[in-house]
Amino acid sequence: MALVLFAAGGEDSRGQSLSDFCGALLEGKSGAIYVADLSAPKIICAVGDSAILSGTQKFPPGSVFKIITAVAALEQGIDPRRQVKCTYWYEIPDGERLPCSWRPGHGKIDLVDAVSKSCSFYFYSLIDRGVSIARIENVAKMFFDIPQSPYFAEFYREDGADFPYRFAMGLTGVLVSPKSVLRMITAVATGGELPDFEREKYDKIRLSDDSEWEIIREGLRKTTTTGICAGIFPDSLSVAGKTGTAPLPENPAITCGWFAGYCSTEGKPEYAVVVFLIDATGYTDAAPLAGKIFEFLQHERK
Ligand SMILES: [Zn+2]
């Protein structure tokens, strides 16, 4: 597939060398990488397959979508400190069993650690604790430009009883572009500032309580310190983020992998990075590439 390299802003030499670097990381792979400078906000690198960059092709977000489900749970008044005991298999009311992401299960786990360890069991349980598809859908619409309600309902009819659980997991019912994931993770990083990268301005997303942003960000930060990405990012980079892996709808034998995250200096988010790869997983493939990009950004700043 064609690899498109460009630096947003053109004259920006920092953006150009960053794009060369990210383009080299994608060599021989299919996917896309975005980097945004959050002070503007401005996309300083967008490289990858042209159909992905243009937004023509969209993909299931996988566990990256757990960020949305977690916000929906908080909006619904779910107590984030209340623990659920993950025993690996989650039985839904019709008797079907759905697996967690990790064997033999995470044991007792609260919302922050469920985000950091990507515990699917916890997120399945939210559906049975009353977090509705409509609630998740409404939160998704705050962050993503996605079709109106009937879109989700259609998927519901197709997929049957496990739909709400798989939807909460980002495996069905919603398709997103890597650029829209960059907007979403930027909004989380900044505590609700949804970026318009073209106009270099922010619009505010308002949640019921500002403390919800802090809870989500704590989970994303723990992802790289004690969660599933522990050891991938040098601690000095102060990276927070989320991985995701999902089968492609047109060919479920192949998965796509995501990492969406940001680095901060003295608590202030500086750069957001999205790595999206086809025929890959989020944890083993996308997250390590994101680590190289954050290191590159830190070196350039020195
Ligand atoms: Zn679990």
- Small molecules (ligands, ions, cofactors) in the structure: zinc ion
Radius of gyration, in angstroms, nearest whole number: 18 Å
Provide the helix percentage: 25-40%
Report the order of strands and helices.
Answer: EHEEHHEEEEHHHHHHEEHEEEH
What CATH architecture of the largest domain do you see?
3-Layer(aba) Sandwich
Number of strands: 12
Which percent range describes the beta-strand content?
A: 15-25%
CATH topology of the largest domain: Beta-lactamase
What spatial form do the alpha-carbon principal axes imply? globular
Order the strands across the largest sheet as they lie in space.
1-3-2-12-11-10
Structure class: alpha+beta
Amino-to-carboxy terminus distance: 35 Å
CATH superfamily of the largest domain: DD-peptidase/beta-lactamase superfamily
Overall mean confidence score, pLDDT: 91
Class of the largest domain, according to the CATH hierarchy?
Alpha Beta
Number of domains as seen in the coordinates:
2
Q: What's the tally of helices? A: 11
What are the low-pLDDT stretches, counting only 5+ consecutive residues below 50?
A: 1-11
- What composes the largest sheet? 6 strands, antiparallel
